[in-house]
Each structure stands twice: as C-alpha cells, then as structure tokens.
Amino acid sequence: MVGPPLFFGAFFLWPILQILRGGFVDPNGNFAFAYVIEIFTDPIQLQCLGNSFQIAVATTVLTLPIATPLAFVSNRFLFPGKQAWSALVLAPMILPSFVGAIGIRQIFGQYTACNAGDSISRGDHCRAFPAAGPVTRRHLPRLNRPPS
C-alpha cells in the first residue's frame, strides 16, 4: 500500500513544507526569522493577524453555546428524526469534498473542458497543463487577427 501515503505526501505534505520553507528560508537559501519577525512588526500584518484571531474567538464563542446542548441531547436521548438530524449536521463537513470532486470531473471528464471539442483542446498538453486547451481555445481567435 504505497499509493495513498505517496499521494498524500505529494499533494498534502509537500505543499505545506514548501510554504513553511518560504517563511523560514531567505532568497539565498539561508535559514532566517526575518519573515516571521516582519509579521509581528508590520502594522498591516498585525491588523490582519488580530482580525483573524477576533474571527476565531467570535466563532467559537457564538457556536459553543449552541453546539454543546445539541450534542448532549443528541448523545443522551432517542428522539424521532435523530438519524436524519445527525446526517444533516454532518452535511456541511462532507459536501465540500463532493463539490471539489464534481469540479475535477468537469475539468478532466470525457467531453468536458480538457477533452471536448476540437483538436486544440485534446492531446497530451492536457496532462501537463490541464487549462491549456480551454485557455488556448478562448484566446486563439484574438491571436489570429490581423494587426489593425
């Protein structure tokens, strides 16, 4: 079972490590805290950090009094519609995955953005750069116009 760890390593861990590397390595390749220090010294960055913290605290404070009693009731008691309620509560966590999957299907599926239509949208360039077909098809008529 090498596939899943390789997949998650390539598409989950590697981007996170690249982001962290960009925050702690300067353009010369040396380890530096300059970017981290800049976040705590720049007023705009501090304001953004403060806004993010305020949103996180407000969200927690507003949802905790609602979620705690509902979780208690759902865990301790049997009531009509409990299974439907449990499914509806989980829907906001599950649906974004399906939306992403539908988007990927719309891009790479048969007769879709990457594989449909004329010869300019088909071919090996779709594997290397999936948007090449639709982008080229959209802008090619503009490129072929004679200069005015």
How many strands, which pairing sense, and closed or not: the largest β-sheet? none
What is the SS-derived class?
Answer: mainly alpha
Low-confidence stretches: 118-125
Rg of Cα set:
24 Å
Record field, number of beta strands: 0
Strand composition percent: under 5%
Distance between the termini: 60 Å
Instruction: Report the oligomer.
Output: single chain
Overall mean pLDDT stands at: 77
* H/E element order: HHHHHH
Alpha plus pi helix count: 6
The portion of residues assigned to helices is: over 70%
Overall morphology: extended
Keywords:
148 residues; mainly alpha; 6 helices; 72% helix
Commentary on this structure:
With 148 residues, the chain is mainly alpha-helical. The protein is built from six helices and no strands. The radius of gyration is 24 Å and the shape is extended.
Quick recap of the structure?
With 148 residues, the protein is mainly alpha-helical. Helices cover 72% and strands 0% of the residues.
Annotate the secondary structure layout:
Layout: H1 3-24, H2 34-41, H3 43-76, H4 82-108, H5 125-128, H6 132-143
Helix pairs in contact: 2-3
